[in-house]
Design a protein that fits this description.
4 helices, globular, single chain, 15 strands, 4-stranded antiparallel beta sheet, Creatine Amidinohydrolase, alpha+beta
Length: about 260
C-alpha cells in the first residue's frame, strides 16, 4: 500500500464506528468458521469458498475480491508464506500454519482482521509459540491504542513483546493501516517504533493493527504471482490482525463476534 505524505486521517463519529462494528462482526464470524475448518486435507481454495458463502450470506461484500486484481475473497498464507497468499489447490497438511486474512464491507464501511491457525491437535511447540507471540504482540499494540498516545507507542509495544520472546523477525516491509470507507487508508501503523514518537492518536481514529512475525530472518520477497509474500530463508511466519477504534473509553476491537 502507498500512503501520500499529506493525506488526512479519517476521523469517525461514534455512529460510523458502530457501522464499522457491523462489518467487523462479519469478518470475525467468517474467521471463526474458517478456523474450525482448517484441517489436514482441506485446500486453501475450499477455505475461500467457505469465506465467500459466509460474507455474502451475511449481506456483506468481500473487501479483497478484485482489489487491485486480487482473485479471491481471503488471503491464505501457509508456513513460509507471510501474507497475500492466493487460495487455490494447495492442500493443508498436518501441522501446517495457515494465516488467514479477511475483509468485508457493509454499507460502505470496512472491517479487516487476520488469524493464524495450526492444522493439528498437537502442534509443534515452536510453531504454537510463534503464533502465540504474534497474537500477544497484537494485544499489546491494541492496549497502546489510546487517545493522547502516539503511533510509536503502538509500534513500541508490539516490538517489545516480539523482541523479548525469542529469536523472531518483525516484517517491516508490510505494516498496519488506517481503515474506514476504504480498506487501506492513512496512516501507516508500523509494528516497531519508539514510544512517544509519531502521529498523535485521537478519538475517532480506526486502525488495523497487524504484526507479521517470522522465525529467524524478517526478509521477504514476492513470488511471480505478484501477490504471495514469502520469507527468503524459508522459515515460517504468523500473522494476526484486528480493526481497532480509538474511543474516549479506550481502544475497542471492532472485529469480534
Amino acid at each position: 500500500m502507498v500512503f501520500r505524505k499529506k493525506e488526512r486521517v479519517q476521523i469517525k463519529t461514534p455512529q460510523q464506528i458502530g457501522l464499522m462494528r457491523i462489518a467487523g462482526k462479519v469478518v470475525a464470524d467468517t474467521l471463526e468458521t474458517l478456523r474450525v475448518n482448517v484441517k489436514p486435507g482441506v485446500t486453501t481454495g475450499e477455505l475461500d469458498a467457505i469465506a465467500r458463502e459466509c460474507i455474502y450470506g451475511a449481506g456483506a461484500t468481500p473487501s479483497f475480491l478484485g482489489y487491485y486484481g486480487f482473485p479471491a475473497v481471503i488471503c491464505t498464507s501457509v508456513n513460509e508464506e507471510v501474507v497475500h497468499g492466493i487460495p487455490g489447490g494447495r492442500v493443508v497438511n498436518e501441522g501446517d500454519l495457515v494465516s488467514i486474512d479477511c475483509g468485508a464491507i457493509v454499507d460502505g464501511w470496512h472491517g479487516d482482521a487476520a488469524i493464524s491457525v495450526i492444522a493439528s491437535s498437537e502442534p509443534l511447540p515452536a510453531i504454537q509459540q510463534l503464533s502465540d507471540v504474534t497474537r500477544a504482540s497484537l494485544d499489546a499494540g491494541i492496549q497502546a491504542a489510546v487517545a493522547g498516545n502516539h503511533m510509536g507507542d503502538i509500534g513500541s509495544a508490539i516490538e517489545k513483546v516480539i523482541r523479548s520472546s525469542g529469536d523472531y523477525g518483525i516484517v517491516e516491509d508490510y505494516v498496519g493501516h488506517g481503515i474506514g470507507t476504504e480498506m487501506h487508508m492513512y496512516p501507516p501503523v508500523p509494528n516497531y517504533g519508539h514510544a512517544g514518537q509519531g502521529l498523535e492518536l485521537k478519538v475517532g481514529m480506526v486502525l488495523a493493527l497487524e504484526p507479521m512475525v517470522t522465525i529467524g530472518s524478517p526478509e521477504v520477497l514476492t513470488l511471480s504471482d505478484d501477490w504471495t509474500v514469502v520469507t527468503t530463508d524459508g522459515n515460517w511466519a504468523s500473522h494476526w490482525e484486528h480493526t481497532v477504534a480509538i474511543t474516549e473509553s479506550g481502544p475497542q476491537i471492532l472485529t469480534i463476534q
